[in-house]
């Protein structure tokens, strides 16, 4: 097998995400000139002769449809290569598989619950040590670095409290220590943030979320900035069977074409919701980096081009599942569901739902309580969403 991998041209595809998302793989069909990328669901590909093929032999190792998506995402993030995986957690796992027993990893204490579970309950069993800290302070990151630190894993904005990490500062610290720096860019997408431009080595996405944008497929991606990392990740993905199916890759490839305009609407709706919640007497605190009083608003303006579509808030009064169910049950346009980033608006309780896999002590330590609610603003009209929340509150 000689999979060519992504082969994109920033100049030909356009430097702006609105253009690159559509034209990074165009023209893609020289046989029939189809406007949309074709799908290749074949599990295997024939050889012209022994050892000679057209770049693919088996879909786990490489598939033309998946390569088109990988090319597009590599272009949008400014990387040299991308692997697309079956889920977002598979993307995180691909990176963690690069580590060895004795390695030390620094990451945030408020990261996604599934990432915490994978690190704390799975990979820690193989002699890898994970340190969960408040990464909003770069000095704390510097103090946590050891001689054995091999990976600094950043999630910014964090899930669900929308805390930010200074990517450029932490990347500098990591490289000085000889560590890889990976950034989960799921909440921002490459439309609003490009971590590789700020010094990161790897970018992770749960493409289930904004990249796909239609809540009908799961997937993940890792974009790399060096040939060495790209080769290791491709080998790991193939060896461990992490790769995404061509059907799922085709759906994500379809969804990513509207990423840029969708993100603009997600952003404007989230900002409107955040401003409304901030003035409501039932709400004690709103978490959204687009608000001027967010403690890291200046950093958001410096390293982001938009603030994203997720807003979290805390109820002023103590909450339990009965009270939350009463609130959620009054909503018309917000579905009570985990995940985020689809065209429809979603709402959930991180304490009882998306982050329930974290130990209670870790949840509370990160600032997540029974009264914390996470909102994924869809692309509906903002007035309808605000009226809906107002009625429920």
What are the salient characteristics of this protein?
alpha/beta; globular; 5-stranded mixed beta sheet; 7-stranded mixed beta sheet
Task: Describe what this molecule looks like in 3D.
This protein is an alpha/beta fold and 393 residues long. Helices cover 37% and strands 15% of the residues. The strands form two sheets. A seven-stranded mixed β-sheet has the order 1-7-6-5-4-2-3, sandwiched between helices. Strands 8-9-12-11-10 form a five-stranded mixed β-sheet, with helices on one face. Helix 8 (189-192) links the parallel strand 5 and strand 6 (202-206). Helix 3 packs parallel to helix 10. The longest helix has 20 residues, at 259-278. The radius of gyration is 21 Å and the shape is globular.
Q: What's the rounded overall pLDDT mean?
A: 94
Report the major sheet: 7 strands, mixed
> Could you estimate the helical fraction of the residues in percent?
25-40%
Gyration radius from CA atoms, angstroms = 21 Å
């Amino acid at each position: 097998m000689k999979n060519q991998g992504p082969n994109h041209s920033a100049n030909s595809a356009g430097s702006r995400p609105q253009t690159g998302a559509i034209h990074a793989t165009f023209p893609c069909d020289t046989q029939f000139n189809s406007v949309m990328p074709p799908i290749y669901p074949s599990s295997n590909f024939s050889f012209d002769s022994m050892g000679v093929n057209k770049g693919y032999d088996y879909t786990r190792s490489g598939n033309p449809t998946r390569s088109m998506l990988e090319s597009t995402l590599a272009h949008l993030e400014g990387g040299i290569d991308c692997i697309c995986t079956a889920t977002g957690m598979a993307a995180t796992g691909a990176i963690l598989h690069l580590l060895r027993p004795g390695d030390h990893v620094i990451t945030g204490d408020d990261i996604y619950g599934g990432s915490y579970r994978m690190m704390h309950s799975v990979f820690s069993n193989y002699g890898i040590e994970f340190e969960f800290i408040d990464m909003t302070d770069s000095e704390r990151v510097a103090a946590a670095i050891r001689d054995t630190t091999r990976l600094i894993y950043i999630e910014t904005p964090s899930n669900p409290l929308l805390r930010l990490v200074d990517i450029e500062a932490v990347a500098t610290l990591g490289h000085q220590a000889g560590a890889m720096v990976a950034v989960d860019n799921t909440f921002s997408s490459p439309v609003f943030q490009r971590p590789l431009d700020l010094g990161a080595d790897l970018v992770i996405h749960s493409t289930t979320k904004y990249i796909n944008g239609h809540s009908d497929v799961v997937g993940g991606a890792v974009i790399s900035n060096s040939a060495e990392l790209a080769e290791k990740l491709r080998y790991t993905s193939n060896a461990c069977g992490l790769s995404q199916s061509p059907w799922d890759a085709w759906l994500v490839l379809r969804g990513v074409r509207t990423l840029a305009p969708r993100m603009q609407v997600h952003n404007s709706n989230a900002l409107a919701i955040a401003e409304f919640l901030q003035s409501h007497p039932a709400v004690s605190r709103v978490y959204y980096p687009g608000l001027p009083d967010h403690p890291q608003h200046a950093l958001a303006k410096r390293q982001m081009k938009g603030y994203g579509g997720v807003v979290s808030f805390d109820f002023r009064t103590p909450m339990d599942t009965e009270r939350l169910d009463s609130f959620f049950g009054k909503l018309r346009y917000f579905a009570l569901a985990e995940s985020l980033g689809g065209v429809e608006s979603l709402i959930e309780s991180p304490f009882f739902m998306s982050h329930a896999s974290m130990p209670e002590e870790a949840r509370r330590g990160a600032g997540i309580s029974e009264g914390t609610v996470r909102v994924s603003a869809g692309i509906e009209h903002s007035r309808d969403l605000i009226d809906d929340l107002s009625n429920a509150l």
